[in-house]
Design brief:
By secondary structure, this protein is mostly beta strands. The protein folds into 2 domains: 54 residues, no CATH class; 100 residues, Jelly Rolls. The strands form 3 sheets. It has a 7-stranded mixed sheet with strand order 5-7-9-14-15-11-12, with no helix packed on it. Strands 6-8-10-13-16 form a 5-stranded mixed sheet, with no helix packed on it. Strands 1-2-3-4 form a 4-stranded mixed sheet. It is elongated and about 75 Å long. The N and C termini lie far apart (55 Å).
């Protein structure tokens, strides 16, 4: 683990051990991936912070690397909050495992994401259109109120209007969902 904080005075000698302990082991180190990190750090010490390809941030707790970004929340004040996600290239039906999570659509083929009544009231699913394929969002089994973009009805299918745009689906009451974001009916 790093040596903490030290204020150097004019004329102090900066030894290699000081440089390593006060600076190097306390910096945020960037690596291409976990293998690159292991190969370059060797033995990690508690408190080390790394980024992996600029998309994830981990802290070493003394025995394992723990992800701190993107956040993974599993509970809060007794309520289950999931913050997972999935990347897809084909149509799918959402499940409760995606509650408060994200669906990342990464295909040029058209896909339909069906949302059955699987969320708890006030929970959401976010859908990102990351490629050129049309992304349609449809109400599924158990949904009796489905509305967004100024229209309503369980037969209405919403589409995310452009690549690199997103939509959110939120359960607002029993069997009732709202679709918001960059959508058209």
């Amino acid at each position: 683990m790093g040596l903490g904080r030290k204020v150097f005075a004019a004329g102090d000698v900066l030894a290699a051990a000081d440089l390593n302990g006060y600076l190097m082991e306390q910096s945020v180190m960037n690596f291409a991936n976990a293998t690159d990190r292991t190969n370059n750090i060797g033995t990690a010490t508690a408190g080390m912070v790394t980024t992996l390809g600029g998309t994830a941030m981990d802290i070493f707790n003394g025995s394992t690397w723990q992800s701190v970004y993107p956040p993974v929340i599993t509970s809060l004040a007794g309520s289950v909050i999931q913050n997972g996600g999935t990347a897809i290239t084909a149509s799918m039906t959402a499940t409760s495992a995606l509650e408060n999570g994200t669906i990342w659509v990464n295909t040029t083929d058209p896909v339909t994401i069906t949302i059955p009544d699987v969320l708890n009231t006030w929970d959401t699913i976010t859908i990102h259109r990351n490629a050129g394929g049309t992304v349609s969002i449809a109400a599924g089994t158990g949904v009796t109120s489905w509305a967004g973009a100024g229209t309503a009805g369980t037969g209405v299918v919403f589409k995310i209007d452009q690549t690199y745009r997103a939509a959110g689906i939120q359960k607002v009451a029993a069997n009732s969902y709202r679709v918001v974001g960059r959508i058209v009916a």
